[in-house]
Write a structure and sequence with these properties.
6-stranded mixed sheet, Purple Acid Phosphatase, chain A, domain 2, alpha/beta, 12 strands
């Protein structure tokens, strides 16, 4: 955790330094503006720690207000950083070519700085809108493993809601309402349902209890369940009516086999061995937070549902997450049989915005394969 925090703040400070470089031509004609800008940036860099300290002191409203400002700023800075990275690379190339005698084509200047900041602000505001534009992604699968008489099995997946300081009852109520409209037979939660700041979940279990699908609700842990404190995260999920599968296998109403494993932050679990020991003639659903596929488990399940990567959440960060999770959005056929579906996530982490990665509820409809 300490390594993560040190790495995060080192990168975050570097992002601010590049953004300041891009902004500097706008500020250089004013005596106080460069200093005031750095003071503001320093406050925003420390905002995640400030929020945590104020929240622990019991000042919920103040912590939430600072969180909205600090995390929105985080998204804005990332967008500005992305644009200024392009400007910086162009600037270096222009300087090199000018050294060789070419005309000076540098973009770095007050006009460019203003355009980038306005562009980042516009995209950021759109990103806040997109984060609230919850979509239903429908997936149709055919199988020969449904019991006789079952004409359709509807599985609803939520993932990466990050309930906590920012995402509260109003966000969850909207999700529950859409799930009720979909009328799924089974609801699954593939991790990170809670955030690291978990002291704000009173009343949310009652919202989850409104959802009573006939085949039940199943969940697995994500990394944030461990960051939040595994015990209290599990208690919240169980009060909400979820059966949490931690290296376990259940058969729901003799209709579907559901397998769930913990996130590796807790303990690496051998799903191949687990699936081998519990092979079933029924459609087998594997719940696993991270979209990694164990080659040894090939052919031992029909569908793996995962989340975690958010498809980067804010473009172009999806190119970074793709380095670790190349399968991060949608349905993929797997070697050896079976398929993987990766959700973009139902909520947000950090910045309350999404850009070119709208939040989703996934509805998987499994129907009999025609002979």
């Amino acid at each position: 955790m300490i390594f993560f925090l040190v790495s995060f703040f080192a990168v975050y400070i570097g992002m601010h330094a590049l953004v300041f470089w891009g902004m500097h031509p706008l500020l250089s004609g004013h005596r106080a503006l460069p200093t005031l800008t750095w003071v503001w940036m320093a406050l925003m860099i420390l905002a995640p720690l400030t929020v945590r300290a104020i929240d622990k002191a019991g000042h919920d409203l103040i912590a939430r207000a600072i969180a909205w400002v600090g995390y929105s700023w985080m998204g804005f800075v990332f967008l500005a950083f992305s644009f200024f990275t392009f400007v910086g690379l162009w600037h270096l190339a222009a300087l090199f070519l000018a050294h060789l005698g070419a005309p000076n084509l540098t973009l770095h200047g007050p006009v460019c700085g203003l355009v980038v900041l306005l562009l980042a602000l516009g995209v950021g505001l759109y990103g806040i809108y997109e984060a609230h534009n919850l979509r239903v992604e429908r997936v149709l699968l055919k199988t020969a493993k449904l019991p006789a008489g079952v004409e359709r099995l509807r599985i609803a997946q939520v993932s990466d809601i990050h309930l906590g300081l920012l995402h509260r009852e109003e966000a969850l109520a909207s999700i529950i309402s859409q799930l009720q409209e979909l009328q799924p037979d089974l609801v699954v939660a593939t991790g990170d349902i809670v955030d690291a700041q978990i002291d704000h979940l009173d009343g949310m279990s009652e919202l989850w209890q409104r959802l009573q699908p006939p085949l039940g609700k199943f969940a697995v842990t994500g990394n944030h369940e461990f960051y939040a404190g595994l015990g209290q995260a599990l208690r919240f999920l169980e009060r909400s009516g979820f059966t949490v599968l931690r290296g376990e296998v259940v058969t729901a109403a003799e209709t579907i086999t559901v397998v769930g494993i913990d996130d590796p932050v807790g303990k690496n679990q051998d799903e191949a061995n687990l699936l081998t020991r519990h092979q079933s003639d029924l459609f087998t659903l594997l719940l696993k937070h991270r979209p990694r596929v164990n080659e040894k488990a090939a052919g031992l399940f029909d569908l793996q549902l995962s989340g975690h990567a958010h498809r980067g959440q804010i473009f172009p960060f999806n190119y970074v997450t793709a380095l670790e999770y190349p399968q991060q959005d949608g349905l993929y056929s797997l070697p050896g049989g079976g398929q993987l579906y990766v959700s973009r996530g139902t909520g947000t982490w950090g910045p309350p915005m999404r850009v070119l990665s709208p939040p989703e509820i996934t509805l998987v409809e499994v129907v009999p394969e025609q002979p």
